[in-house]
Amino acid sequence: xxxxxxxxxxxxxxxxxRLTAFVGAESARxxxxxxxxxxxxxxxxxxxxxxxxxxxxxxxxxxxxxAGGHRDDARAIDAGAAFELLHAFALFHDDxxxxxxxxRGNTTTHEALQAEHRSRAWAGDAxxxxxxxxxxxxxxxxxxxxxxxxxxxxxGWQMWNELRVELNVGQYLDxxxxxxxxxxxxxxxxxxxxxxGKYTIERPLHLGALLAxxxxxxxxxxxAFGLPLGDAFQLRDDVLGVFGESSVTxxxxxxxxxEAKPTPLMALALQRANDQQRSVLKKV
Length: 284
Prior knowledge:
Blueprint: H1 6-33, H2 38-48, H3 55-66, H4 74-98, E1 102-103, E2 106-107, H5 109-119, H6 126-147, H7 154-179, H8 185-212, H9 219-243, H10 246-249, H11 255-258, H12 264-272, H13 275-281
Antiparallel strand pairs: 1-2
């Protein structure tokens, strides 16, 4: 197993410190206004600071440095932290849509807040409360991501807006694919790319480059590198989602199968299966 490069650990540590300081300051501000808001920031901290591989911040940072940015420039760290907050927004919402019970080995936010509602015998429906609260916490994370990108120029904001549209479009197509039992490999790959691949590697590289130099000419070169690598990342994630170990991945194994997710893994399996195998796969 390969050791994590020192440069990656250093960037991740700087992003962690920025996220801890930023979310901590917001928590102090809003819990002084109303102590009941503490749970909001506890859950945000648990999702944003408590885990994750920090891939997006690392690619943002090196996209920035590759385009001429200085290694010590705090703007690259802020942009990386913004990606983590955007990713948290997606995870809060994704867990609700998928009905996930765990995330990174811990109870998902909507499930935790449902349990809180029940344990305190509050009025109303516990599930609606948990889901609604988790949606709002995700929305808050979305807003905070923008707050960390104050130094972006016009092209940078255009890229940031585009990647957020791509993320939401990809998520909708993922839900639709499950509902329609979509199994075409080319459609599954498109969903894979837009739901996760592009905003994991290609777009962080782009944003870093535009943050360093609004006139950068590296966008196409970064796409040539980032798109296939992002596809590979998501394909591997799909394999781990079926054959991985929960103790390692932090996610339940088999959720993609149970929810009939339109993954390239299942699409290719059906394409290459014989009639008997295809009959079994369609029952999964």
